[in-house]
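Can't paste images in this forum, so I'm doing it all in text. The chain is below; anyone willing to post the predicted structure tokens underneath?
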Amino acid sequence: MKSLYGVDKLDKIENFSYVDNEKMKNENNHKYYFEQGCLQAQEGNYKESIAYFTNAISLKKLQHYYFHRARARVKIKEYKYALKDFDKSLYCNKNADYLNERGKVKRSLNDFSGSIEDFTNAIFLKKYHEFYFNRGEVRLDIQDINGAIEDFKDAILKSPIEEHKYRFKYGLSYSKIKDYKRSLVHIEIAKNTMPSEGKYFYNLGILRMHLNQIPEAIQDFTCAIHLNYQKDKSLFKRGKSKIILEEYESSIKDLDAAIKLHAINPSYFNQRGLANLKLRKFKIAKKDFHKCLEISPDFKDAWENLRELDNKSFWFEDES
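Text version of the structure:
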């Protein structure tokens, strides 16, 4: 199997033992520099690989030399330089894979229309599942939800191997138009296919909250926590769900844990304040709302919660 840079990782030493040959080291041999660039890129030495590819290009301006230098530049996030190299790699001959890679760089530079154009041209040349998926991602970026749904559907149909990944984005697209039931069905399929993926459980939990399936949402957030997926957010969502079920003490434990992991999220303090408010621990609740506002002075819910406390004048009943 070929690597990203066209070199068989298992056989690279045997295949490239000739690069030490004095003849291959001739300064006019562009192939030597190109192969060395591939080896350096394989080892993750992208700056060194760029230098070798540049030497190769100085001797022979070949399309795939520019392409590989562009790939190396993407790895170190030199997107503008990479884009120029992709342009040169596509100057004489339109290649579907090159168009796909340039489309990804344009997306990184927020050139969404240019990115979609490249993916569309790549699909015209080769109807490959990854190209549809990448175009769907950009369409999600620009809120073209119906277009994204069609692209993810085509990606699913063309690649059963990657189906869970594409199915997840397909389901996520439906959630963007608040079709939570349909979204749930597809993300559930993705989760069943790849049960080790924490983000599937996390997003299922959010969907179940929208559908008022609170006990099931708590189970999903618990799975996400066990899989260490965005643990503070998963704890926060589980704590929020427990407030709905009036499990206030348990909710506070989750929110305490979320705050311990990420102490600068104002929502965590506001939510814990609500749980303490429900337990009539008014002074503690007030401290949480003030902490929320210290982090985010414009946090509207925290101001409203403080006004509610003041208006009710409950302080003499404080059991904290």
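Residues 1-20 have pLDDT under 50 and may be disordered. Residues 122-194 form a domain with the Serine Threonine Protein Phosphatase 5, Tetratricopeptide repeat fold (CATH 1.25.40.10).
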